[in-house]
Design a protein that fits this description.
Number of helices: 25
Oligomer: single chain
Shape: globular
Largest sheet: 6 strands, mixed
Distance between the termini: 52 Å
Length: 657
């Protein structure tokens, strides 16, 4: 897609070549050697039954995707971009009409970006206009998810494209299941699977066509493979390769995941200090490095305006996380000075000194987790008043509620779930830090600190919660599961019923909080209504929306009409800057070339004032649907109607007097 050569045929050929090469390598290595006898652990029949029941239930819930095809929000941009990639074969968009548009008309017909942005305009939200070349539209985001959506679109048009995200939701849950199974067995894994699958966050974003659950799938597949590799279960580097590829693809999916680069740094330090470098390490570090460089080049060459903006924001976003780890280092250093006997023995170089010192560090870290959680839940929400920040994209100001992030996460995981997770994390740090679990604690801790401190996104519920879907929410689920597993194994048989009750109460709280999100399918029926609008238009019409709203009907309906149905779309955003004679001359040139041009009036639009053009009698249209309410300070539960009214009239040239 980066090379403008995307097609199902090309993907099939590459897949067949790769599979053939792997098959040849396997046959060559197998020749002349005795096949290894692998004693695989016996799988329980109950595990297969549980997975089968889960798959049926999850499929029923997840494969009811939101019909989010409208513009003005990230989800609609993803869908439109996926369809456009399937149609054109490339990510970057070349629009001849835009290229022919006189520069004097751009301030009136394109949205001017704020100062400091890498692009002067956008034509529709999420589609930047850099101005060089004149016809170029640069879509925002990293584009691995839209390319997979393009696969769905190529296989079965828009309905199949909308099912790609639920597929990742299913696979993301399974990746978490396999990670927990590799660490502690299938029973805890099944509990984590049920808890994660039932959360409102997982249900909502498994049906919402953005990149969160694809990121989740890659991240937890990498965590599973890394645990297997570090457990030294195979000598050939296959687990290392899978881990490196999976983590590398995280960087091609979401731009806010570069904090994960702490992983290879930690591994290099660990392997060096412990003198435990392996010959299979190359299979991990090489693909991870190449895919990381690929993502940076993709940002610089393919999606530069987006990459430039988000990296600037990301520095401020990651700084609290870095400061928190520096603070933890200082606390650990202070703790070290409190135990001078261990300190002297450490510097004496005895192995026992390290063994004595490690538990101290782990206890300090566990205590720090508990203290930070208590601070975030009980103190931080009351430390500062609600701030407002300007949000140019939608106009006006919206509240910044970052001080309430931890409390709001509890709306979806339940306060009981937060408590179980915090206690489980502390317990995991003290009891079971090893090669297999260290990454889980470190990565989960880093992402939790960074995103719970500042989500740096529109705090509109449930939209703001998307940042917690890939790593944070599953991490909380996994650590809560770990605590329940330990309690169940350690308490006497007489008290195990209480652990069962606690577990059922947690699952029940998650299910209750998710009820509204399971029932609701946003924008149901909107696609068929937009298709009826398209059916009333000649092919490849030019649609001029008369819309003054910062993000309005022109953006909502213009985006799918442009990228899903193939019409040219412009919006009169600032009539004061519209050069009347130049505009009329441009429209007449479109008419002279045989194009049909339509004027679409919306509420509060500009008045028609062309001297040489007139409007045919308009037709009235209404698009009606509904969506889950947008709230800032509570978990949404109500469903609100959406009604967009507009009239559409053909533009015709007046006869010469």
């Amino acid at each position: 897609a980066e090379l403008n050569r995307f097609s199902l045929l090309a993907m099939a050929v590459l897949w067949a070549m790769t599979t053939g090469i792997l098959l040849i390598i396997w046959l060559v290595r197998r020749r002349g050697t005795e096949p290894a006898v692998v004693m695989a652990p016996r799988q329980s029949r109950w595990e297969w039954i549980g997975l089968g029941l889960w798959l049926v239930a999850a499929s029923v819930v997840y494969f009811r995707p939101h019909e989010f095809v409208i513009g003005g929000a990230d989800a609609g941009v993803y869908v439109s971009l996926g369809a456009n990639i399937a149609k054109t074969g490339g990510i970057l968009i070349h629009d001849p009409l835009l290229g022919q548009l006189d520069p004097g008309l751009r301030p009136a017909l394109l949205r001017t970006m704020p100062a400091g942005e890498a692009a002067p305009y956008y034509i529709l939200p999420g589609f930047y206009v850099t101005g060089s070349p004149a016809d170029l539209i640069t879509p925002q985001f990293f584009h691995l998810h839209p390319v997979w959506q393009a696969v769905g679109y190529a296989l079965g048009d828009l309905p199949a494209e909308l099912l790609i995200t639920p597929l990742w939701g299913i696979l993301g849950c399974l990746a978490v299941y396999m990670t927990v199974r590799a660490l502690w067995g299938w029973q805890p894994a099944m509990l984590a699977l049920v808890a994660l699958s039932a959360t409102a966050l997982q249900v909502w974003f498994a049906r919402y066509p953005t990149a969160e659950v694809l990121t989740q799938y890659f991240f937890w597949t990498g965590a599973w493979a890394l645990a297997q590799w570090l457990d030294r279960r195979e000598p050939d580097g296959l687990w290392a390769l899978l881990a490196g590829l999976a983590f590398g693809e995280v960087f091609l999916t979401r731009i806010d995941t570069y904090v994960l680069l702490a992983l290879p740094v930690i591994l290099v330090i660990w392997f060096t200090v412990m003198r435990s470098w392996r010959r299979t390490s190359i299979w991990f570090f090489v693909p991870l490095t190449l895919l990381t460089l690929h993502s940076v080049l993709h940002g610089l060459l393919v999606t530069r305006p987006y990459f430039s903006l988000i990296t600037q924001v990301g520095v401020g976003l990651l700084l609290p996380g870095l400061l928190s780890f520096l603070s933890a280092g200082v606390l650990i250093g202070l703790a070290w000075t409190v135990w001078p006997r261990q300190k002297r023995r450490f510097w004496a170089g005895t192995g026992q000194a390290v063994a004595d010192f490690v538990p101290v560090v782990l206890r300090v870290c566990a205590a720090l987790v508990v203290v930070l959680a208590l601070f975030a839940y009980f103190i931080r929400p009351h430390l500062s008043e609600v701030r407002l920040f300007s949000y140019w994209y939608g106009g006006g100001e919206i509240p910044a509620l970052d001080q309430q992030n931890f409390v709001r996460l509890g709306w979806y995981l339940s306060p009981l779930g937060l408590a179980l997770s915090v206690a489980g994390t502390a317990c995991l740090i003290v009891r079971e830090i090893n090669r297999k679990t260290a990454f889980l604690v470190i990565a989960g801790g880093i992402f939790s600190v960074v995103f719970l401190w500042q989500i740096s996104a529109n705090p509109h519920q449930i939209y703001a919660m998307r940042r917690y879907v890939p790593q944070v929410a599953p991490f909380f689920i996994v650590t809560a599961t770990y605590l329940l597993m330990i309690l169940h194994r350690k308490v006497t048989a007489r008290w195990r019923w209480s652990v069962v009750v606690l577990t059922l109460a947690w699952i029940a709280a998650i299910v209750v909080s998710a009820r509204a999100f399971v029932r609701q399918v946003d924008y149901r029926g909107v696609l068929s209504q937009i298709a009826r609008v398209d059916a009333s238009l000649p092919a490849a019409s030019v649609l001029v929306f008369n819309d003054t709203a910062p993000v309005g009907v022109g953006d909502f309906l213009g985006t799918p009409l442009r990228f899903l149905f193939g019409h040219e779309v412009l919006i009169v955003r600032d009539a004061a800057q519209l050069d009347g004679p130049l505009w009329e001359m441009t429209v007449r040139s479109w008419l002279d070339s045989g194009r049909s041009v339509f004027w679409i009036d919306t509420e509060g639009g500009h008045s028609w004032s062309a001297q040489t053009l007139s409007l045919a009698p308009p037709e009235e249209y209404v698009v009606e649907t509904d969506m889950l309410e947008g709230t800032y300070d509570r978990r949404p539960s109500a469903v609100v109607p959406l009604i967009w009214r507009f009239s559409m009239a053909r533009i015709v040239a007046r006869a010469a007097q």
